[in-house]
Structures are given as structure tokens and as C-alpha cells.
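B., you asked whether I could sanity-check this one before it goes into the benchmark set. Here's the sequence:
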Amino acid sequence: MKKRLVTMILVFAAVFAIMAGCANSNSKSSPGQDNKKTLVIGVDDTFAPMGFRDKSNNLVGFDIDYAKAAAKKMGTTVKFQPIDWSTKEAELSSGRIDLIWNGYTITDERKKKVLFTKPYLKNSQVIVTRADSNINKLDDLAGKVVGLQSQSSAADALNSNPIKSKIKTVTEYKTNDLALTDLKNGRLDAVVIDEVVINYYMSLQKNSYKVLRDSLAPEEYGVGVKKGNETLLNKLQKALDEMNQDGSAAKISEKWFGANKVLK
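And here's what the prediction gave me:
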């Protein structure tokens, strides 16, 4: 009798443990759930002026303010997670982040991997050189050493241009900052970079760089959402649309760009 009683107690304990475990797993939120109270946003924290560290190491930028304002509309908060930009889609697919939101260019290839909001900002991939360089047009890149950020749309833009076959070497960097540092130190002849980014750097260092008139490719920024999470995508798009209507998006743009450049 005692043996049977002990067995019954053990069975009930096991069942209770399983039920408790299921309850706990259901109550926990993980990236990718559309009902989360906090959205985890993957960023490149060196991508000025979209998302970068200020002198006090605070994360600031247009996309940072834009995301915070959108989250408020959605009734959530945000947590910014610096990531290796070359693994951004993998971070999103795995559920470690909920959104890719940091000057993320919309491309046909990326559309196969993520859902995108409507475009919110225009951009172009441009060629930047040192101010004293004799490179003045795309053809002048023949035989030169060019740098760009790894796994960025800069690579796509360069690969699709005939000048790529004439370039001596293309060196990939983890961040734009590293590429621009090598350009300034003479280890590169030119850098392919987002126009939005180099415009910001040139506003701070006016005599250091020059941008060629010939751009490689026009493009647009969007926010990336995990495939299958249309609910989150729709909530986010609704918030962005409301920000366009009430003028809050324009104010953020004017703060960072001096004009309203947000697309409607």
C-alpha cells in the first residue's frame, strides 16, 4: 500500500511539474512575438546619423528616435541590440531580435528573407575619396583600392556597376568607420558608402572628403520584420503612418537632417 501511495505521489508531482513548465513557457516573451511589451531592435551602432554612439556613449540617431516614437504609438518599449551587420538577417530569423532598423536598404534579395515596411527614407550609394584625391569620376576608380562595409547594399551597388571589373581590389570592413579611417590614412583610394552617412561625416569634417557626382544606385530604407510576423508588421506600419500624419516624423527628421525627408 505504501509503495502504491509513493508511486501515486511521484506521478502527481511529475504531472504538476510538466504543467508548471508549460505555463511558464507560455508566459515568457521571446523576440518575434507580436504581443511583446519590449521590442528588440538590431542596430549597427556605428552608423551615423541613423544609429551611433555619442561622446557619452549613448545610442543616438534618427532611427533611434524614430523607433522610440513608433514604439510609443504601439504601446511598447524598445531595446536596442548592437549586432554584427553581416549577420542581421540571421539574427532576425533566429528570434534574437524583432526588427532590423538602422538604415536598412530594401532590396529584392532581402525581400526573400524578411518582411519590409513601406520605405521611409531615400538614399544613394556614393563614392567618397579624400579631398585632395585626383579621383573625380567613376572611371577613375580603375586600378584603385576601394573599401565598403561587409554585407551592405554598397556591395550590391558596386557589383552591379561595370566599373567593378576594373577596380584593383575591393576590401570589406565590419563598419563604415573602419573603412573611412583607412581612406583617411591612405590605405584606400575610395569608399562606397551611403549618401546619408557621408553627408553627416562631411558636416563634421568639411575638408576631409569629397563625393563623386556619379552615384552608384538610388535606394530606400525600410524596417525589416521576421517572415511570417505580418501582425507586427501591420502594427508598426500603422504607427509609422500615424507619425507622418501628426507631424512627429517630420520633427525627428528636421532634428537630424535639417528638413523633413521622411517619405509618405
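One thing to flag: The CA atoms of residues 3 and 37 lie 48 Å apart. Otherwise nothing jumped out at me.
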